[in-house]
Amino acid sequence: MNLGLIGLGKMGNGIATRLASAGHTVVGFDQNAEAAHALQSETFSSVESLEQLVQNLAQPRTILLSLPAGEVTSSVLHYLENLVISGDTVIDCGIVISAIVKK
């Protein structure tokens, strides 16, 4: 599986580590570049923008959000709406699990 992960804090780091160790290819983004670069491996790469994250994923894309609830998550979801296309899936892994499938 090839997927994107936005937010590499404690929860996102754990998700990325487990997925990469299981052989899945993960492309990660975090505003804190140090958090992203700390996870580099054969099956994990980091990018410097949300645009690069989307460009580095095969279609249909699956993108997980591991961000704090509230404005930051809302703003990233709104921003991603302009980057994803039909068939892509964005999953918010916050307190309430929700998914947006671009139609």
Describe the sheet with the most strands: 6 strands, mixed
Task: Estimate the helix proportion, in percent.
Answer: 25-40%
State mean pLDDT (0 to 100 scale): 86
What portion of residues belong to β-strands? 15-25%
Strand order of the largest sheet: 3-2-1-4-5-6
Oligomer: single chain
CATH architecture field: 3-Layer(aba) Sandwich
In CATH's first tier, which class applies? Alpha Beta
Q: What's the total count of β strands?
A: 6
Give the CA-CA distance, first to last residue. 21 Å
CATH superfamily: NAD(P)-binding Rossmann-like Domain
The assigned structural class equals alpha/beta
CATH topology: Rossmann fold
* H-E order: EHEHEHEHEE
Report the uncertain regions: none
Can you tell me about this structure?
This protein has 103 residues and is α/β, with parallel strands linked by helices. It has one domain: 3-Layer(aba) Sandwich (Rossmann fold). Helix content is 33%, strand content 24%. It has a 6-stranded mixed sheet, sandwiched between helices.
